[in-house]
Design goal:
- Helix content is 35%, strand content 13%.
- It is built from 11 helices and 12 strands.
- By secondary structure, it is of the alpha/beta class.
- The two termini are 25 Å apart.
């Protein structure tokens, strides 16, 4: 089932648990937990924390995140959530009243709410893409982009069922239309390769607690070079040039630090969380997104094949991402299925009428057996 040996021993997941809900909240790596415990001990002794410590781990993390998107540290801002990243994008993208912001139907709420507020403020419209029967998300998005669209905001995969959006095709059509391009990579970064050099997006945002295996409260925003001189959401001291000179902080400076650092959240150092995020990204990069994707493709393909072969009338969204699978159970059976899975210590997510399955490298063949067997028995 897996491309290389089991990685279960690197995760803090007991044998009796079959966890298929990484898309909501990732299981913890032992290395991430150890980094957090060490960071808490260190934070308990603030006299041991020097001035350089306010910057060292943060810049290490920025470099790792830059590698994940195919860029470098200069394009990365450290943010607390997707909503913060979307807010930065909305504050720094121009759109006119006659234009529209393109989004997917039933997309994750944080982006939708942000774009609605921008539309209210500017008089622009929202264009919601709905798939026709038999149509892929990519086809639907490409058909919806025209000269009236000013911003295209899409994910790489739809969060409810893993339906794939071909970012290369969408990027090409967006650029040809003269529109701005924003990517929510929260359900793909770390498990699907992403190259900002090839895609040329304006902004890419991702949380860190899903496929990046890190802690809550640490997310990432990649900013294209043409937007790195823009307006940050807040004015905190550490974003300004010369902030590493603690004795000179009262010599107020108008200049910001270089790159996308001006968009960092306040209290960005996060002594307790940043070492955990560093450990998480180091492991993700050691595995490599392409390798993770290949392995999880085998896992989700097996689940899809076995569930379909059982004749349960379950439909699987195609094409889809390698790591997300939407299983639609018969009408009225969702509660029964969810209850049976919980009783079997098998954890998935409910998204509308679908059961969303989202494994990571901790999943074993016995976990898959438990998931499929419980589904069959419950139906």
């Amino acid at each position: 089932m897996v491309e290389w040996g089991s990685q279960r021993d690197l995760f803090d997941v007991p044998d009796e648990v079959a966890y298929f809900n990484t898309a909501s909240l990732s299981p913890s790596l032992h290395s991430v937990r150890a980094a957090g415990e060490s960071a808490l001990r260190r934070r308990a002794q603030p006299w041991e924390i020097g001035e350089t410590d306010w910057f060292a781990d943060v810049e290490r993390l920025r470099t790792l995140a830059g590698r994940l998107v195919g860029g470098d540290a200069e394009g990365i801002a450290l943010v607390p959530a997707t909503s913060y990243g979307f807010a930065v994008a909305a504050a720094n993208l121009r759109i006119e009243a006659r234009q529209q912001i393109l989004v997917l139907a039933e997309e994750y709420p944080s982006g939708i709410y942000t774009w609605r507020r921008l539309a209210e403020r500017t008089g622009a419209g929202i264009r919601t893409v709905i798939r026709a029967p038999g149509q892929t998300w990519t086809e639907a998005v490409l058909a919806a982009i025209d000269e009236r669209v000013g911003i295209v905001s899409v994910p790489n995969v739809h969060w409810t069922d893993g339906g794939l959006v071909d970012l290369e095709q969408v990027a090409a059509r967006t650029h040809a239309a003269g529109a701005r391009f924003v990517v929510d990579a929260s359900q793909s970064l770390g498990v699907m390769p992403l190259d900002v050099t090839a895609l040329r997006p304006d902004f890419v945002v991702s949380v860190g607690y899903k496929w990046l295996l890190g802690p809550f409260g640490r997310g990432y925003l990649w900013v294209a070079e043409q937007h790195r001189q823009g307006q940050p959401l807040e004015e905190n001291w550490i974003l300004r040039a010369g902030s590493d000179d603690f004795a000179g902080l009262v010599d107020y400076r108008d200049e910001y630090l270089p790159g996308a650092r001006r968009y960092d959240q306040g209290a960005r150092t996060l002594f307790e969380l940043t070492p955990m995020a560093v450990a998480a990204l180091e492991q993700v990069l050691a595995w490599g997104p392409s390798r993770i994707a290949a392995t999880l493709t085998a896992v989700t393909d097996e689940i899809a094949t076995r569930v379909t072969a059982a004749g349960l009338g379950v439909t699987v969204t195609e094409p889809r991402g390698p790591h997300l699978l939407g299983l639609r159970v018969p009408a009225g059976a969702t509660d029964r299925v969810a209850t049976a899975l919980r009783a079997a210590n098998c954890f998935v997510a409910r998204r509308g009428d679908a059961i969303r399955v989202s494994p990571h490298l901790h999943v074993t063949p016995s976990d898959v057996d438990r998931l499929v067997t419980t589904l069959v028995a419950s139906l």
